[in-house]
Specification:
The chain has about 290 residues and is of the alpha+beta class. It is about 50% helix and about 15% strand. Helix 5 (about 165-195) packs across helix 7 and helix 8 (about 225-245) packs across helix 11 (about 275-285).
Length: about 290
């Protein structure tokens, strides 16, 4: 059974995995460039993801982009849980609705339906996927991935008002856009790795050998948000995490999260959370007493 390795380097890849994990309090956040899916048979896990406390309940499929800092801070009545990691590039090529992709890129956590029928089916699927990948990974990986894709397409229906593309239309779309998807993925990952430093559009575009204007347009068309918008969301999420987990002064947190001035930090934080940093810290401490 797996558990978090405190010596693990940040952004070291897991690759495609389907494993049983033992819950342990994590002394620091983990970050890796995969989509992570959790499923619990019983109990609950509480993460600090970005700047939000997120509780994963039993019998509920839950996924998030693991490039966002995530840290288990509490667990109850759970001895093990399933963890699936899917390389981010593979996930993007599945052609899931843009609305679902964008929610994950923004650092949001998505959960599936938790009715008894869905929960029973999901429990069987996770048991089967774990058995397949553990016992015969080379010969089972392809159909496990297809079943995962189908499960996430079902999940996506509740997060998108747009119809899912037919198989033929989706495959044609991916064939025409896969090089662009790869570049959009690299830009998103570059931001996730470097948002604390001084990032400019031209630097992000340079990492994928594109003109800044074209890079900005490509990213917006792929994910439905701007490059600067994603940078800001990462920085605000990091600030939220520090406001919850440290006693540092707000000005120090602003600079640590990548902002170059306190006024810009306060403005961005209010725009994203509808709260001031001081108000956010106070509310979190009141709720966690």
């Amino acid at each position: 059974m797996q558990h978090f390795d405190t010596q693990r380097p940040e952004f070291a890849p897991y690759g495609f995995t389907c494993e049983l994990w033992e819950p342990v309090p994590m002394p620091r956040p983990d970050r890796h460039d995969e989509i992570e899916i959790n499923f619990l048979d019983s109990g609950s896990l509480t993460y600090l993801i970005g700047g939000n406390r997120i509780t994963v309940d039993a019998h509920t499929l839950t996924l998030f982009w693991a490039a966002v800092p995530h840290q288990i801070v509490e667990f109850r009545d759970v001895t093990h849980y399933y963890v699936i990691t899917i390389p981010f590039g593979w996930f993007l090529q599945w052609g899931l609705p843009e609305s679902l992709q964008t929610q994950l890129i923004l650092g949001n956590v998505l959960s599936g339906d938790c009715d008894s029928t869905t929960a029973t089916r999901d429990k069987f699927l996770f048991q089967q996927w774990h058995s397949d990948v553990s016992n015969d990974p080379e010969n089972t990986r392809e159909f496990v991935l297809l079943e995962l894709k189908a499960r996430l397409l079902r999940l996506a229906r509740s997060y998108s008002k747009n119809p899912v593309l037919s198989s033929d239309a989706r495959d044609a779309s991916l064939k025409n856009s896969s090089p662009n998807l790869a570049k959009a993925e690299l830009m998103a990952c570059h931001i996730a790795r470097n948002f604390k430093s001084r990032l400019q559009i031209k630097d992000i575009a340079e990492c994928v050998d594109l003109h800044p204007d074209y890079a900005s347009t490509l990213f917006r068309k792929t994910f439905g948000l701007t490059l600067n918008g994603l940078i800001t969301r990462h920085r605000v999420a990091e600030a939220q995490r520090l406001l919850i987990s440290s006693n540092d002064q707000i000005i120090d947190i602003a600079f640590a999260a990548g902002f170059d001035s306190l006024s810009r930090f306060n403005r961005a934080f209010k725009e994203v959370t509808s709260m001031t940093p001081r108000g956010f810290r106070k509310e979190c401490r009141l709720n966690n007493r």
